[in-house]
Request: fold
Amino acid sequence: MGLMRQAGLDARIDPAGNIIGARAGSQPGALPILFGSHIDSVPEGGNYDGDVGSLGAIEVAQALAEQRYSNRHPLHAVIWCDEESGLTGSRGFIGDLPDEELRRPGRDGVPLADKIKRIGGDPDRIAGARHGPGSVAAYVELHIEQGGILDEKGLQIGIVEGIVGINHYDVTIRGFANHAGTTPMDRRQNALLPAAELVLLVDRVVKAVPGRQVGTVGRLVVKPGAPNVIPGEVALTVELRDLSADKIASLWSRISAEAREIARKYDTSFDYVLQHTNSPALSDAGVRAEIADAVQGLGLSSQIMPSGAGHDAQDLARICPMGMIFVPSVKGISHSPLEYTRPEDVTNGGNVLLQTILRLDQQ
Reply:
């Protein structure tokens, strides 16, 4: 917030825990233009995911202040809270944080509402954070690609055509924990066996369908977790991503149906909960055109591309025209301490963001 104030922004924390730095516009009744990203990270994450777009937004505001630019629209630099755990801040901003979700304890036993309070939000006034369709002129997000396409091709900018939808399933397979030394092999209800087959099943089903969809089993907890006890329960996650929500649903239908048969084969049970879902979001053609014009004006190379990662921009697309700007991730590494984007690429992205905001402000 200090950096925002130094850039001439009026900084505050909204009820959902988002940090918003506002610069007033000169045109009465003009809708605000938003730009920003997030600063939270995953365990063992890097220093560029979210931070590039967040600091880039503040740098744009700083440049406008230094040049004494008179903007027509209100300009809001936004730092969204808790992007990595489910786009919490941006969902609060558009009114999609149900009270049940706010009060439900997380895996650490702490309700989301308490976490929002801890960072300065006010979950009891969450309705005050809501912005409906038509309340924002446009949203633009600068972000690292988090993949290797731009770096491999030697391109400087990615213009995002759309953001994949994400379905996250929490799966539980239950068998019966028993002594590993005295229980014969043909009398076991080993929950780890169907879980292991499920991991391979996800990989097989997702690869069997043409397209750019991906599927991942990224977390697996075996209980009771002792060397001399047959696993009685396995909890695991399945995450499916694609630009088509219908394809995600179709993939899960095939996976879950076969998983039930596998569980029965081992005399175990298969249950799941759809933990959260992020809907696919296409970027706005008009905003994409302004980004492309900015790229061309700066003499940079680019290509149109999808985003395989989820972003707050997909929530903003539900209420306003949205666009995203990608800069290269070296070797395609992200969500890792080895994550890196070259300084010159960060600068290019910041300049494209600045020029895009200037173009949108003249509309």
Observations:
- The longest strand covers residues 165-174.
- The chain has two domains: 2-164+280-361, 165-278.
- The chain has a mean pLDDT of 96.
- The domain at 2-164+280-361 is CATH 3.40.630.10 (Aminopeptidase).
